[in-house]
């Protein structure tokens, strides 16, 4: 009798614990434990932005690349060592940068509320503010994520997709977040911000132009890309702007795709594929629809496989798993 009662109590406690874990993600998570965290975060973010106008694009990409590898757990920030390998060393994470912004946000949060605010929540806060301050939607998100103790270069290389993926691969890889095809195209619309490396578009330029760049409408665009990204001898860190307004979160990306000026292989592909082209057309002319769909997709993405409750830790230093 006693053993059965003990098992019943354990079951009840476990169920309650799991419910509690799910309930931890909420908008007012830090209302009492660190009520000024959002002001702290935005102050540090703006300070970082003053040093680099491309910082917002970096923060949006950082959130995606963190969540895409085993969930939103700030594993991307961990340095190698202590049984971990560095996700940032994966070729898929080429260009991940401006991490000093997250470091500054974390240091300020630790001074105000020691051991309370997770690195994973700070990544999401930075991405949200990056979108808003760049002219995008003001997204309402939930918090309460905790940080993982592990990171893997191999996992990043395996789970992150390259610039030359197909539409099928795109929908499959983003589908793990629970997003619809329309939401997947909206997430891809974040390519309206920032830059890309020449190494990621050289396959479209050499030894001959790919078929989508051989069309008359794309000829000038292709010639400009070849001038910026020569066939050989260029610095592997050479970059090109994603679009003409690459510091503004707008619909220019979709307009460029429709005009044959999609930069990456996947950018050109979504404008041609029947599963995605209708959404490209809609977003190109409907800013409100793009913003609403992006917010829905971003919310789903940033809840993906989060670490909560006793499953994770609050790192005092985002680079070290303690």
Automatic annotation (TrEMBL):
Its EC number is 1.11.1.7. Binds 2 calcium ions per subunit. Binds 1 heme b (iron(II)-protoporphyrin IX) group per subunit. Residues 1-23 form the signal peptide. Ca(2+) 2 binds at residues 192, 243, 250. Keywords: Calcium, Disulfide bond, Heme, Hydrogen peroxide, Iron, Metal-binding, Oxidoreductase, Peroxidase, Secreted, Signal. Disulfide bonds join 34-113, 67-72, 119-318, 198-229. CDD domains: secretory_peroxidase. Removal of H(2)O(2), oxidation of toxic reductants, biosynthesis and degradation of lignin, suberization, auxin catabolism, response to environmental stresses such as wounding, pathogen attack and oxidative stress. This is Peroxidase. It comes from Riccia sorocarpa.
């Amino acid at each position: 009798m006693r053993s059965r009662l003990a098992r019943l109590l354990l079951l009840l406690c476990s169920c309650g614990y799991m419910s509690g874990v799910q309930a931890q993600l909420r908008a007012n998570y830090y209302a009492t434990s660190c009520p000024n965290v959002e002001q702290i975060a935005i102050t540090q973010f703006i300070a970082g932005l003053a040093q680099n106008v491309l910082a917002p694009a970096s923060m949006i990409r950082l959130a995606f690349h963190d969540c895409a590898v085993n969930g939103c757990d700030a594993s991307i920030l961990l340095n190698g060592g202590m049984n971990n390998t560095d996700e940032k060393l994966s070729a898929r994470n080429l260009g991940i940068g401006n991490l000093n912004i997250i470091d500054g946000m974390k240091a300020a949060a630790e001074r105000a509320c020691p051991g309370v605010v997770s690195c994973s929540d700070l990544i999401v806060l930075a991405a949200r503010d990056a979108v808003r301050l760049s002219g995008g939607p003001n997204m309402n998100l939930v918090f309460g994520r905790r940080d993982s103790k592990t990171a893997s270069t191999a996992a990043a290389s395996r789970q992150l997709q390259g610039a030359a993926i197909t539409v099928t691969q795109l929908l499959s890889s983003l589908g793990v977040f629970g997003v619809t095809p329309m939401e997947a195209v909206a997430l891809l619309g974040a390519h309206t911000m920032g830059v890309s490396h020449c190494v990621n578009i050289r396959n479209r330029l050499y030894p001959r132009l790919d078929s989508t760049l051989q069309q008359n409408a794309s000829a000038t665009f292709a010639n400009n890309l070849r001038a910026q990204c020569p066939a050989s001898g260029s610095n592997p860190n050479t970059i090109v702007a994603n679009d003409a307004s690459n510091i503004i979160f707008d619909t220019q990306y979709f307009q460029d795709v429709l005009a044959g000026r999609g930069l990456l292989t996947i950018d050109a592909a979504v404008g041609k594929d029947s599963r995605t082209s209708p959404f490209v057309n809609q977003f190109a002319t409907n800013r409100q629809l793009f913003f609403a769909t992006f917010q829905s997709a971003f919310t789903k993405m940033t809840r993906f496989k989060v670490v909560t409750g006793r499953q994770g830790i609050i790192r005092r230093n985002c680079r070290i798993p303690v």
